[in-house]
Amino acid sequence: MADNEVATKAPESDAQESLVPGDTKAQEGTLRDRQTLPFYKVYISKPSDYPHQPSKLLLFLSSGTGIHSKNNQLQADKYASEGFVVVAPDQFAGDALSNTATDPNAAPDANPSMIEKVKMGFADTAKAFMIDMWLARQSQEKILPLLHKVIEGAKDEFADAVANGDGIYAVGYCFGGKYVLLLGSELPDTVAKGQAVKDEEKGVVKSGPQIKAGAIAHGTQITKEDIQGLKVPVTMACTENDQLFPDDIRAEGQKWLVDNKVPHEIQVFPGVPHGFAVVGEYEDPKIMDAQKAAFEQMLSWLKSH
After folding, report:
1. Which of 129, 212, 224, 229 supports an S-S bond with 167, CB 3.0-4.6 Å?
2. Are strands 206-207 and 234-239 parallel, antiparallel or unpaired?
3. What angle do CA 18, 100, 174 make, to 5 degrees?
4. Would you give the distance in Å from CA 223 to the centre of its chain?
5. CB contact set of 124 (below 8 Å; sequence gap of 6+)
6. Alpha-carbon distances of 246 from 232, 268, 295, rounded to whole Å
7. How far apart, in whole angstroms, are the C-alpha atoms of residue 299 and residue 241?
């Protein structure tokens, strides 16, 4: 588990650093891919009594700040302390987003000076450009095949946990939320595994879902098509008026889930910033309460499915 070091106040923002106490140590490791690339970097967190006590396997897909973020490591550790063997892959292949992106839902300074306005304008433009360039590099064609290989490696490495849970569970925060939905869908192998069409006459082969159940918090870049492809139970902890997961897309997706009888749970937290559910210290007790409630919501869903 992550060392007892600093973790940012707001994982997706420029907030000041603050200490997150009470952590214990686990391990960071690798999963071997025997077919193509020799190693994938992963953060692995295990229950203290594993393998002496049965556990379930949980795929942890982080925000854009990646598995080297202390916040994300601490969040993974929380699931391990609840009995899950947690595998958090570097889904960005070493290209995580630096922790300098501001929360798009944050309220601006009420009375900035002219100089501050100019500085903020330049900074916001630079950050927006950096994020756009980064997002352009994080395509489904890049990430899904990588996740597929990590899942295959995890099935070998932790076969007992997969068998005990009768499948793989998944949680996703921010950027990772979209990919929990995709892994819970049936996708063409050309997308899911990055494979070429093997038989032109048979056409594209579909496979999936890759997970048994999923839980996401304040997902980003989620489309209605992502939700409409879902075939496994899912719970969502959402932020109200979130520019990164608009209310209209969420509402349309929820209607589809209801109409198609896909087991789901959606809770919307008002007055909290995007990224609130990831471990971090906030001065506002309302945000800390929402953070705790979101974790309990997601954990309860995973344990009941």
Report:
1. 212
2. unpaired
3. 85
4. 16
5. 102
6. 22, 12, 21
7. 24
- CA pseudo-torsion sign 11, 12, 14, 15: negative
- Global pTM value: 0.80
Asked if 219 contacts 182 with a C-beta cutoff of 8 angstroms, the reply is no
b/e burial code for range 43-77 (CB count within 10 A of at least 16 → b): bbbbbeebeeeebbbbbbbbbbbbbbbbbbbbbbb
Torsion of CA 267, 9, 44, 142, to 10 degrees: 70
Residues of the chain above pLDDT 70, percent: 71
C-alpha to C-alpha distance for 208 and 229, rounded to whole angstroms: 11
Contact 167, 210 (CB under 8 A): no
216: confidence class by pLDDT, cuts 50, 70, 90: very high
What CA–CA distance (Å, rounded) separates 178 from 63?
10
- Rounded Cα distance between 142 and 165, Å, is 28
Alpha helix stretches (DSSP H) within the chain = 70-80, 114-137, 140-157, 159-165, 175-183, 189-192, 224-228, 247-259, 285-304
**Residue 167, pLDDT score:** 97
Q: Which of 22, 9, 32, 41 is nearest to 282 (CA)?
A: 9
pLDDT in tens, 155-183: 998 999 999 999 999 999 999 999 999 99
Cα 284 from chain centroid (whole Å): 24
Contacts of 137 (CB under 8 A, 6+ apart): 95
Q: Largest alpha-carbon pair distance within the chain?
A: 66
